Request: fold
Amino acid sequence: MKRRLPLLIVLITGIFGAVAFFVPYPAIRAADEIMRNDVQRIIAAFSLVLGVGSIVQHHMLKIQRRAQYYSYSYITIIALIITAIIGVFGGIDVTRPGILPTRFGSFSIHIQTLYSNMMVPLAATMFSLLAFFMASAAYRAFRARNLEATLLLLAAFIVMLGAVPFGRLIHHQLPAFAEWILAVPNTASKRGILFGVELGIFATSLKIILGIERGWLGGGK
Amino acid sequence: MSSTHENIFLRLQRIDRRWIYLVLWLVIMVPLIFPFRIQPRASTPVAQLFNYIDTMPENKALVISVDFTPDTRAELQPMVIALLRHAFTIKRRVGILAMQVYGLGLAEEAIQQVTNEFNSRAQTHEDSVIYGEDFVFWGWTTPLLTVMLGMGERITRVFPVDYYGNPTESLPIMRDLKNYDDVGILVSIAASAMPRSWINFAQVQFGVNLSCGITAVSAADFYPYVNSGQFIGMLAGMKGAAEYEQLVEKRMKNKGMDWGLRNTGTEAMSSQTAAHLAIMVFIVVGNIAYFASRRRKK
Reply:
């Protein structure tokens, strides 16, 4: 029953979800609307509880076991609690205050302040490191070792040159050529890949709905 | 080949990566401190989107879906700002939503900035940008299927309250913005495959016009959809944002709104251009060193 019930739910909702796309019958449309607007939202709310519970449990265990870098787990949990309290009770910004006092003189700790001054710089810092790794990889690994690599290198070179105004100075048609590479050969290959991917998704979805693929149930064998 | 040359090529092959990091850091930082002016010319996909919005019927709204996270803010936020400026300049209503919870803060930032720009210079009520009349920020809800399909039926059902907690039914803008039929174009600004989901659910089912603004690295993935006409134009990376900014600035000047606003996408172009050129030089030098040392081994 523990395995059959989830499989049955997936079978029924999966088939219903697909059928609702094609059947314009009012009762089906109404049921589909309830499924999408109410049932799915309730499930999504549970997944939020599950997600928060999971992250708290994971870090509490790390702290209890004094695992490697466990001190960072304190930061995660404290940040989670403070952000949640401010987010729920502290208001959006200075113009839209909440029930918690989050403004002290000219200093404020509204959710938008936390977001703009902590979340944004931290995330941007992490992502900007990519530029350095890309530069290092371009220098060390982007070699014209064979025909395929040479073609890739040439295409990348032209597209990069076309993307900067300097490319126009070399030849006025260079940006147009770079655009052509993206719009024609790139599109042709991408379409082939996309057809394959979509067919793969379709096949996997069918396998899940029909209970052939059961990996999502977890629990190994 | 002399031994000095051999040594140089070998040393170039084994250069400490920290030197590469230092050079790139300088190449990025110096143009930010001492920028050189770059006037990007609008590419075809950017011009397509601009022209479509510019000639959109007055009763149709622009919907901006902020589907990115703060890590790609530098590249994508200028697009949101330029789109908002464009819509407010030509007096088109705007609906804003976020498909990622992180997008809420970014959307709020952009709204605050652009509404301040317009309202601080407004002379009359008509010049002002009023919340609930000229634009609405629906906020975020989940899951995406609920949003993308539900908005085709009734937007207020998907978002019963807006980001600020107001009942959406009470907002005047929502009287004429019921579902996709009232949307001129929906632009998904994303660093993920989210624009594709908009095609799968919103366009296939309801035929809504779509476009996207995406990071430069993912631009190649979206060209098939631009070519097929599923996306009306596209803004690709910071260059796309800069091009759109230039078109909007020109449009604003034409309407007598020469406000000298900051265009962060255009400002960053000098740094990005220098970084691109530096990476190209790295590739060339790396290959020269590779082939020279290979010849020596032979």
